[in-house]
Amino acid sequence: MCWLGLCGYERQRKQVEVGENETVTLNFILGQGSVNLDEVVVTGTGGPVEKRKIGNTIGSVSAEDLGNAPIQNFSDVLQGRVPGLNAMPSSGVTGEGARIRIRGSSSLSQSNEPIVFIDGVRVDRGGGFGGMVSAGGGASPSRLDDINPKSIERVEVLKGAAAATLYGTEASNGVIQIFTKRGQVSEPQFDFQMTQGTINYPKTIPDNTGFARTAAQADTMSKYLDREVERYELVRENYVHKLFETGIQQEYSGSVSGGSEGITYYVNGRWSGENGPLSGKRFPYPQGFGPLANDELSRTQATANFNIFPSDLLQLRVNSSYTSTNLETFQTGNNVSGVTSGAMHSKPELVEP
Fold it and tell me: Which of 44-48, 169-173, 306-310 has the lowest mean pLDDT?
């Protein structure tokens, strides 16, 4: 006797109505199917292993678990779905990635990021522009956000000492295995998704208050603030709120999958764009102070996976992925010289040409 899902057969259900004093006979013919993903994991030891037979703690997130959740990047796939894993945003600014920690940090000087594999190939999981330069103050993009979230079939997370046992001491921070979607033998299946939204920052920063000590200073303030300012008159301005606008977020994704006995395929294309709530326009004064800050992200992604079966003894697998990212950001995070920090500490009487 074997359990359904473990002996290579698909689960099958039928609904029947039985009347009073009636006898009904149901015949089931089980078709062959893949082993359930909840029961089998890839540990790095050379092949799949039944989860109940392995002594390690492995977290798993499948595409079915995500449902219709608003997923913008890879960090959203993991956040709050795997026990012991935290995806900590850098600062929440458009285009900045999350720092992933599995069971906390293990080093004060070395990297605390886990090792990442995509379809068995190790990838760069670093942050920043080219891995070294950030936006300042500890905020930076993440290379993991280059992964197309719409192409992810499931993610497995190996934690603790078991990861170092299987992958070496460098994996002491954990291992993340990403498996992309593949086509099934069927007619072409098409899928298209479109999402749009807006982004706003809460306006909770108090106003900045100041006054002109001299007549010349009052004249300068009157010119650039576009109103008459007298000496020792209290002037209230909020430069942080003037930086804000209503941001726009949009995403378009389409995919096709299917195949025959000889070849299966999965192809996906995705474009996502975000114009964040920081304004790239001039300050709302007649003379203006020039472009101050902007946060825009545009990302084009494509995934194409093919499985080719020339014979019963040979399988060829081709996985390909393409990402093009254009990010415009500003000095942010806890950078005291950044745009928002400067706006918070500015004074109306310090305005000058």
Answer: 44-48
Name the H helices within the chain.
Answer: 63-66, 74-78, 160-167, 215-225, 239-242, 339-344
pLDDT at 303: 94
Question: What is the predicted pLDDT for the residue at 149?
Answer: 87
- Beta carbons of 258 and 187 less than 8 angstroms apart: yes
Side chain identity at residue 84, one-letter code: G
d(CA 230, CA 300): 53
As a whole number of angstroms, the distance between CA 37 and CA 6 comes to: 10
How far from the centroid of its chain's Cα atoms is residue 34's Cα? 29
Report how far residue 178's alpha carbon sits from residue 171's, in angstroms, rounded to the nearest whole number. 16
Order of strands, edge to edge, in the sheet holding 186-199?
A: 186-199, 247-259, 263-275, 296-311, 314-328
* pLDDT tens per residue, range 316-330: 999 999 999 898 877
Rounded CA-CA distance 82/97 in Å is 18
Cβ pair 263, 307 in contact under 8 A: yes
* Residues 45, 47, 48: CA angle, nearest 5 degrees: 110
Q: Which residues contact 196 (CB under 8 A, 6 or more apart)?
A: 248, 249, 250, 251
Region of residue 217 (phi > 0: left; psi between -120 and 50: alpha; otherwise: beta): alpha
- pLDDT reported for residue 288: 46
Contact status, residue 71 vs residue 77, Cβ threshold 8 Å: yes
Write the pLDDT tens digit of every residue in 65-105.
Answer: 776 667 777 777 877 777 778 777 777 788 887 778 887 77
> What's the Cα-to-Cα distance from 280 to each of 44, 87, 97, rounded to whole Å?
47, 29, 21
Tokens of 210: 């100041």
Dump pLDDT digits (tens) for 70-81. 777 777 787 777
